[in-house]
Amino acid sequence: METVLARKRAAEPHAELQPVMKMASVNKSFSGVQVLHNVNIELYKGEVHALMGENGAGKSTLMKIMAGVYRPDSGSILYKDSAVNWPSPMAARDEGISVIHQEISLSPNLSIGENILMGTIFPRNKMGFIKWQLIYEKAEAILRSIGSSLDPRAKVSTLSIAQQQMVEIARALSFNSEILIMDEPTASLTDKEIEKLFVIIDDLKRKGVAIVYISHRMDEIFRISNRFTVLRDGKWITSGPISDTNPDHLVKLMVGREIKDLFQRTYADTAVTTKREPVLELKDISDKKTVKGISLRLYPGEIVGLAGLVGAGRTELIRAIFGISALSGGQIIIEGKPVNIQSPSDAIGYGIAHVPESRKEQGLFPNLSVQENILMAQMHSYRNSGILQYDRMSQDAERFIMDLGVKAASKDQNVMGLSGGNQQKVVIAKWLSIGPKVLLLDEPTRGVDIGAKTEIHKIISNLAEQGLAVLVVSSELPEILGISDRILVMHEGKIRAELSRQEATQEKIMYYATGEIK
Amino acid sequence: MQTNLQSAGGNDQLIKKKLSYTFNQLGMVIILVLLSVGMAIFAPHFLEMSNMLNIFKQVSITAILAAGMTLVILTGGIDLSVGSTVALSGVISVLITNAGVNPIIAMLVGAAIGLAAGAINGYLTAVPKLPSFIVTLGSMTYLRGLALVISGGYPLVLTNETFKFIGAGKILGIPTPIYITTLVYIIMFFVLKYTMFGRHVYAVGGNEEAARLTGIKVERTLIKVYSISGLLAGIAGVVLAGRLFSGQPTAGIMAELDAIAAVILGGTSFVGGFGRIQGTIIGVLIIAVLNNGLTLLNVDSYWQKVIMGGVIVAAVLLDRIRNRRRR
Ligand SMILES: Nc1ncnc2c1ncn2[C@@H]1O[C@H](COP(=O)(O)OP(=O)(O)OP(=O)(O)O)[C@@H](O)[C@H]1O
Ligand SMILES: [Mg+2]
């Protein structure tokens, strides 16, 4: 199927003579720091244009300018042959530019249907009342067209991050747009949903929509895009047909230097680990909804991957361990002692750290600085007779910023001024700062670029060598395969298989994850 | 020449960057200065020392309440009950003083009553997670009711000199309430910036879910915040009783609204998480200068209300417009 699509794509004429969108010499500064320097980009009808660059390169900023969220300081935007200066994002959308933003921006208290059609004119009857039935029907049609079985009447607050991502996609599709900007649409989706998304993208291309596709997943880029543009440190580096490049070359353009292959963990001395006492043991635990009787042992020094499809219960399992959701049965044992974890602060007390799946909702304090975001879980250790020692805090914050390569103007910068990937690094730093015994990671490198991803994997692996036990959920199979010593595959709330790093392959994992058991 | 121009531009950008952090407060400082200058020109007695002390003394109750209100609004909540707490604390502390209790102890009891009322508000907001607006609307009503029941609806006259001193006394020529207010603000500044509790207040206000997942005891933090607001209201009640020489069941009516207005004028956002205690001082002073100036100008007291309300809305609007333009 993959090759068929690929061949079809190659045969398609993707470039017309005139670009539908042409941005030239775009400059943009935020409070005195210039983040875009004379950037150019051209989009043609019916193409998928990969916008590439490291975290903080300026991709999202450029796209926000294209979509009227920010105004450029200077430069021109030529849309369908006329110069435009969007007064608002709504104006851009009405003219046919829609965006799937990197950060999910749904209204949690409204229904899925309302969220999808938000911004369109709701159908009304003669009295001026909204025809809800029609809204839900329309929303349902869009959802089904992207292969989602969500109920448009359900509230968004009940959805997982991946499901919310699907709603975002559905919303962007509800406008008949000529340009569709996708800023990391697949960051929390698994292969199954991504395949569906690619079918839709193919369909949109055929209809002549120009698509900007931002992703840090190289394989996706080479599967679906026609052309690419690379940004580095806010500067335009190059653009061209994707056939002129290859993953290594592209990475080199993005980073400005060679980068070695994806990180491969080598440690994994299972003989030693099995002899030790498990640091975390789960006996038959269930939560009230998804998790059904899971038992596992996590030994000091090992990294265990949790694979599975969206909805398999991976996040729910991790949340149950961390005391976010209540257990309905089973026992958690830490270093041989049964414990009763009622809340995250209990879990932290036992040395458990948890990088949540949604940095915006569950990880970041949008009102605080990078420094405080990093140290918030650890404030108590900076007190001297009750008084916070700011100089010690600064030192430690700076060390974490260095170690994780967080790109920030300063440690005192507001965290929301960081690019998405750098925000993720801040959340990871927060949890490393408590010096945990058990680290639960839920999509830890979501939106993190290749170079930084390798760095984070190295750091986690080094910590494991010093005795940290890690349980990691990732929808990216290469990531799971790359860093895990063992892999547990979940399906419908149960562990279906345990694979050693030697026997694990993408195919085997998918086989168990889809539940295709005799 | 060229390089000169560039470095000038760079400097300019740097200044802009610094300003952007203090803009909210700065805008309000400008408004405060303009108002004061206007008053100084049109109301001849405005700048006199006695009038200045008078301004500070009059505003001390609002100021003490606003300090606690800043905490509450920083967590994204609201405390409508502080005005009623002022009344209850005043009535009870005067009542027991008149019954022969040591006035110092009576004043402490007044403060403790505020603390207890606040703790109940905090518990209901944090644990069963009722909206603070509803909880404190309720306590605003029942606390006022209690004050009326206990006093029988009449002011209780205060004769004890020690007690009077807290509201009407002077130390080195400066009214006691000014010392108390200053102390409250110094402590509050310190608590917000230099204690873990203070930073947790910001964390909870900025993102409650993230705070919980970070291991912050959100419930405990909220209960403390409302307790502090109540405690300060209790103290304000004692100070006011001392100043009025009586415990009045109708004291502090609408005082919560002045406090809220001061906090908002000071740049603290209703969204939670954004704001500073320094800003609240500015907000308090704007209200004080307006009140005092309008009185000096012999503006009819009904019209004073109209002008006050208008100025509050206009000031916040102005600030919002200036902030939006920066994007
Ligand atoms: N609102 C803002 N205020 C201040 N600085 C900002 C703001 N938005 C972005 N920046 C800065 O602009 C730069 C580019 O950010 P941008 O979000 O465009 O990066 P990105 O290429 O999308 O990165 P990522 O892959 O991590 O999403 C970063 O250095 C970021 O810190
Ligand atoms: Mg981005």
Strand content of chain A: 15-25%
**Strand portion of chain B:** under 5%
Give Rg of chain A in angstroms.
Answer: 23 Å
Distance between the termini of chain B: 30 Å
Quaternary form: heterodimer
Shape of chain A: globular
Biggest sheet of chain B, open or closed, and with what strands and sense?
2 strands, antiparallel
Global shape of chain B: globular
Q: What is the average per-residue confidence, as pLDDT of chain B, rounded to a whole number?
A: 88
Task: Give me a quick take on this structure.
The complex is a heterodimer of chains A (518) and B (327). With 518 residues, chain A is an alpha/beta fold.
Task: Walk me through the structure.
The complex is a heterodimer of chains A (518) and B (327). With 518 residues, chain A is of the alpha/beta class. Chain A folds into three domains: 2-96 and 176-260, P-loop containing nucleotide triphosphate hydrolases (Rossmann fold); 262-351 and 437-449 and 471-518, 3-Layer(aba) Sandwich (Rossmann fold), CATH 3.40.50.300; 357-435, no CATH class. In chain A, 35% of the residues lie in helices and 23% in strands. Chain A has a six-stranded mixed β-sheet, sandwiched between helices. In chain A, strands 16-19-20-13-21-22 form a six-stranded mixed β-sheet, with helices on both faces. In chain A, a hairpin with a 2-residue loop joins strand 17 (383-384) and strand 18. Chain B is mainly α and 327 residues long. Chain B has a domain at 60-278. Helices cover 78% and strands 2% of the residues of chain B. A two-stranded antiparallel ribbon of chain B has the order 1-4. In chain B, strand 2 and strand 3 form a beta hairpin. In chain B, helix 1 (2-42) runs antiparallel to helix 13 and helix 8 packs across helix 10. Chains A and B meet through helix 12, helix 13 and strand 18 of A and helix 1, helix 8 and helix 9 of B. Bound molecules: adenosine-5'-triphosphate and magnesium ion (MG). Adenosine-5'-triphosphate binds at residues 30, 35, 53, 55-61, 102, 407, 417-422, 447, 449 of chain A. Chain B: It is a multi-pass membrane protein. Chain B: It is found in: Cell membrane. Chain B: GO terms for molecular function: transmembrane transporter activity. Chain B: Its main location: membrane. Chain B: It comes from Paenibacillus prosopidis. Chain A: Its main location: membrane.
